[in-house]
Amino acid sequence: MSVIWAPPSTEESERWLAIADELSTGHFEPLAGELDRDQRYPWESVERLVDSGLAGLFVPKQFGGQGASFATTCAVIERISRGCASTGAILTAYALGGTPLVLAGTEAQQAKYLGALAAGEAVSFALTEVGAGSDAAQIKATATREGDLWRIRGEKIYIGNGGASRYYVVFALTDPEAGARGITAFMVDKEADGVVIDHLEDKMGIRGTQTSNLKLDTVVRDEDMLGDLGRGMRLAMQTLNAGRISVAAQSVGVALSGYDEASREAVKRHTFGTAIIDNQGIAFPLADVATRITAARMITTHAAEAYDRGESVAVLGAMAKLYASEASHDAVDLAVQVFGGDGFCKPTRAERLYRDQRILEIYEGTSEIQRLVLGRAIKADVVAQEEVA
C-alpha cells in the first residue's frame, strides 16, 4: 500500500478519478511547464474539462452537469492539481463561482448560469476590492435603484478565472448604512455595457490561470439579484466555507506533487556513496511531510463529506484549508531542498511548485483568517459550555 492514506473509493469517485487521471497524465501535467513559462490561459485544457464533464462535475444533472458529490469534486480537484496546479486552480474557481448559484439561485438562474458553466461559459466570484480583502465587509461597490433597474458601480480585484469567465457573482452595497447587512449579490454579464476588464495580474505562481479586475458602471434587473436583498455577505461566507474545502483539496494535490518529486529524488540521488534518503536528515523530513499530507487528506475528505451531509463546515473548512495549505508549503519546500541547486533553478518542477503553492495560504482566506475563525469558534465553544454548567 502507499505510505499516504487514500480515502475509501465509491463507484462515483472511481469513475471520475479515472477520467481525471487520464486527462492529467496525458495532457495537463505535460503542459504545466509551458503554461507557467508563458503565463498562458489553457483554453485547450478547459475544452477537455468541459468535454469530459469535469467542468460541471458538481452541477445538478437537470442543469447539464454531472450531479457528483462535493467529496468527489474535491477528489478530482486534488488529482488535477497534483498534475498541474494551474488547471486545478481553474477547476476550483469553477466550483467557487457556481456555489452561490447552487445555494441561492432561482431555478431560472440555475438553469441559465449553471448550464452555461457546465458548457464552458464559467462563472467567477467577485467579492474582493482594494482595501476589502480579508475584511470583505468593507467593500465599497454600490448597487443603487434607477427606476426598475439596479446600477452597480465599483471595481473588483483578484478574480479567479477573471476575463476567461462570461458571468460574475458581484457583491455590492444596496444599503451602505447597514454595513455587512446591506450587501447584496448580483449576476453580471461581462458582455454588458459598462463592464470592463482591463488588467490581468502578473503572478508569481499558478501562471496558467487568469486573475483580473472587474470595473463596473452597469445596470442589472431584479431577476439578476442572487439570493435575498441584504443577504449577500451571508451568501459570500457560505460560499467561502465550501470554497476553503476545495482549496484544501487543491493544496493536498500540490503537496502530493511536491512529495512525489522529493521522495523520488531522495531515492535516486546519491552522495558519499549512498542514497540521500538513507540519511536521517532527509528521511525524517520526508516522514513528517508524508504524515502531514495524510492528515491533510483525512480532514479535507471529512470536511467534504460533512458538506455533502448538509452539516455546518465553517470550522472544519477553516481547519482543512489551514492545515492542508501549510502542509503543502512544507512539501514543496522540502522538494526544493532535496533537489539542492537544481531545485532553485528553472525549469524544474520543484521550483514551479514552490511558486504555485504560495497562493494556497492566501486566497479563500489567509492562514491568519483561518486561525481567527477557529479562535472565535473556540471562544464560543467555551462560553457555551460555561453557560450549560
From TrEMBL:
Cofactor names: FAD
Domain Acyl-CoA dehydrogenase/oxidase N-terminal: 10-121
Annotated ranges, domain Acyl-CoA oxidase/dehydrogenase middle: 124-219
Keywords: FAD, Flavoprotein, Oxidoreductase
Pfam family membership, one: Acyl-CoA_dh_M
Acyl-CoA dehydrogenase/oxidase C-terminal domain residues: 230-378
UniProt-listed SUPFAM superfamilies: Acyl-CoA dehydrogenase C-terminal domain-like, Acyl-CoA dehydrogenase NM domain-like
InterPro entries membership: Acyl-CoA_Oxase/DH_mid-dom, Acyl-CoA_Oxase/DH_mid-dom_sf, AcylCo_DH-like_C, AcylCo_DH/oxidase_C, AcylCoA_DH/ox_N, AcylCoA_DH/ox_N_sf, AcylCoA_DH/oxidase_NM_dom_sf
Domain of life: Bacteria
Family label: Belongs to the acyl-CoA dehydrogenase family.
Entry protein name: Acyl-CoA dehydrogenase family protein
Record organism: Agrococcus citreus
Organismal lineage: Bacteria, Bacillati, Actinomycetota, Actinomycetes, Micrococcales
